[in-house]
Structures are given as C-alpha cells and as structure tokens.
C-alpha cells in the first residue's frame, strides 16, 4: 500500500542544494531578497521603479496583499504584475511635483529552517532625499528556496500604523505589545494560532476515517499556496492550490483495511509574529501513526496569514523536515 502523509509536515524534506549556477546577490538569502525588494521600490525624482529587478524575486504564483487603508477599505490580493500596474497608474514620473520615493527596512525578525523562511520586516517611507517620515509599517514576507538554490518570495502582506497602531518595541517600534483578542465567530478562524491548530486537526485521522477536507479548505484564501519539498515531488518545485494538494493526498492514501494505521500530526513549538492584519507562524511539528507513540519525523511549517472579513485566513504554507534540512534548531523545539 502506498501512503502519502499530508502537507503540513508529512512530506520528506528538500535535499541539500548542489548549485550548478552562480546565484545573484539578490537571491542568495532571505535577507538579501528582502533588501533587494526595498531597493527596487525606491526611486529618485524623474526615475522609475526597478520592476525588472523586483519581479524575478517572486515565484510566478506569488501574491501581494496591501493594507486596507491603502486600498480604501477594499481587500485586494494582487499578483506581482497587477501590483506593479497599480503603483505605476498613480505614480507621475518627472515634473515639478515629482518628489521620488524611498522605503527602507528599520528592523527585521527572521526565521529560517532548511528551505523555508519568514521575514517580519519593519519599514519607514518618505520622499526621496527628505527626512520627514510619511509612514511606518511591517511587511510580512514568506520565502522558499528553489532547487537552484535561489530564494524566492511566495507571499508579501503588510499593514501600517495608520490602521494597526504603533509598531511594538519587539519589532523596532515604540508601541506596547498588545495581544489580540480572539475574533467572534467560528473558533477555527478566531486567531492565527486557532487557524494553525485547525489545520493540524483537519489532517489527522483514525484508521478507516477520511481527512477532514471541508474543515481544511475553509482555512485558506482562494489564492493560497501549499509548497511541499522537492523530495516528495520527485525533484521538481511544485506549487499547489488547496484543491490540488487534497487531490494529491487522496490519490496516494488508502483508507481502510489491515494496513491502514491512520495518521496524527501535532505542533510541538510555535514562533508567532503578528501586527494588525498580518501574522506569521513558524510551526514545529512531529508526525506519527494514529495511536502510536513512535515519531515518524519532524519538521517546520511556515504559515503566512491575513485577517480579512472578521476572520483569519491562510495565505500560504511551505514546509521542510529533518530528513533533508537537518535537526530542528534548539530555538524552534
């Protein structure tokens, strides 16, 4: 019987990369990617944004979600191209009113394990060559490392002080940490932690039972991505939708019979970063057969989340495991 453990952790980890081509400085690390994105969206008066530098730093399926104050209260999920078009549409280059633009990172919290990473990047923005700060916010950046060794952005979501309040001191600001209260409504959607707990619960099953795919699907934005490691895919870098991932798991799972031992996966540690409507969870897990104490493997799930319409949603999940990435660091145990 062929058995595939579900996304969120069951899949084998990416092997170490044997890089056959030299990487550019922009793609050599998660920090370098984020730095290059900031550099590409700065421009002196009379110049344009460097979209040609920024665009290759994202996977083709990447999404960008602006804060609602920037969109007039409307929730938008942009592709890289559509976001560039929006910026260009209200940017006037040249003339007496063109003051350019600068945005720079002032603080970053970075989590990285194997081929998954998250950067919680605090920024400030201003006109070019001017000291006055126009605004501050946090970019929540989710990244993966591809088989070539190049790091790429999977999703980029942000919020700003205009709607989310002062940035807490833990993220380089002067505000106080204010733990968010669970939202009203279904418990599964009430907080980033609740969404992650529901995701784990949905992919556990007793022998003879199915995974709870209805519960699982409900946790994700329609544009969400799930990225398994390349050992599980046989080498290619594959980006799944929730639907295609469910189909893959079901096609490789036999329910019932003497060989069906079920499956269980549980979170054993989590690093949670949240500000306003954005959140990241770097979630360490272990997996086993149902009603068995023997641990089959350990890894880390990188969750990107956003708050919209009175609830929290998963924007993307990517994961790696000890089989390819090595022992889980002490900080994530």
Topology:
Blueprint (H helix, E strand, L loop, with lengths): L29 H11 L10 H4 L3 E8 L14 H10 L12 E12 L2 E11 L8 E11 L5 E10 H4 L27 H11 L10 H5 L2 E8 L14 H10 L12 E12 L2 E11 L8 E12 L2 E11 H4 L8
Parallel strand pairs: 1-5, 6-10
Antiparallel strand pairs: 2-3, 3-4, 4-5, 7-8, 8-9, 9-10
Word description of this protein:
- There is one protein chain.
- The chain has 333 residues and is α+β, with helices and mostly antiparallel strands.
- The protein folds into 2 domains: 147 residues, Nuclear Transport Factor 2, Chain: A, CATH 3.10.450.50; 154 residues, Nuclear Transport Factor 2, Chain: A (Roll), CATH 3.10.450.
- It contains 8 helices and 10 strands.
- The strands form 2 sheets. Strands 1-5-4-3-2 form a 5-stranded mixed sheet. Strands 6-10-9-8-7 form a 5-stranded mixed sheet.
- β9 and β10 form a beta hairpin.
- The two termini are 33 Å apart.
- The N terminus is likely disordered.
Sum up the structure in keywords.
333 residues, alpha+beta, Nuclear Transport Factor 2, Chain: A, 2 domains, five-stranded mixed beta sheet, globular
Average pLDDT metric: 91
Gap from first CA to last CA: 33 Å
What would CATH call the architecture of the largest domain?
Roll
Based on CA inertia axes, which overall geometry fits? globular
Brief digest:
With 333 residues, the chain is of the alpha+beta class. It contains eight helices and ten strands.
């Amino acid at each position: 019987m062929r058995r595939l453990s579900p996304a969120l952790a069951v899949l084998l980890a990416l092997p170490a990369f044997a890089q056959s081509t030299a990487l550019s400085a922009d793609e050599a690390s998660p920090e370098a990617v984020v730095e290059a994105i900031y550099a590409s969206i700065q421009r002196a008066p009379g110049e344009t944004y460097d979209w040609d530098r920024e665009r290759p730093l994202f996977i083709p399926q990447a999404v960008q979600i602006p804060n609602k104050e920037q969109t007039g209260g409307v929730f938008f999920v942009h592709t890289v191209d559509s976001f560039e078009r929006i910026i260009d549409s209200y940017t006037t280059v040249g003339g007496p009113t063109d003051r350019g633009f600068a945005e720079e990172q002032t603080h970053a919290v970075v989590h990285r394990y194997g081929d998954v990473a998250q950067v919680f990047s605090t920024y400030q923005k201003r006109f070019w060559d001017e000291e006055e700060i126009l605004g501050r916010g946090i970019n929540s950046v989710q990244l993966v490392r591809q088989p070539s060794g190049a790091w790429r952005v999977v999703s980029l979501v942000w919020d700003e002080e205009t709607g989310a309040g002062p940035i807490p001191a833990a993220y380089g600001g002067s505000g106080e940490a204010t733990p968010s209260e669970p939202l009203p409504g279904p418990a599964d959607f009430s907080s980033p932690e609740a969404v992650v707990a529901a995701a784990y619960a949905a992919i556990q099953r007793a022998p003879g039972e199915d995974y709870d795919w209805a519960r699982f699907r409900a946790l994700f934005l329609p544009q969400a991505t799930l990225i398994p490691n390349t050992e599980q895919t046989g080498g290619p870098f594959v980006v799944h939708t929730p639907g295609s991932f469910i189909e893959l798991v079901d096609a490789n799972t036999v329910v019932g019979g003497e060989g069906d031992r079920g499956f269980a996966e549980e979170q054993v540690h989590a690093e949670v970063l949240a500000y306003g409507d954005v959140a990241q969870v770097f979630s360490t897990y272990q997996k086993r057969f149902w009603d068995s104490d023997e641990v089959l493997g350990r890894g880390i799930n990188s969750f990107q989340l956003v708050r919209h319409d009175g609830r929290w949603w998963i924007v993307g999940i990517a994961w790696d495991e000890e089989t390819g990435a090595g022992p889980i660091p002490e900080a994530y145990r």
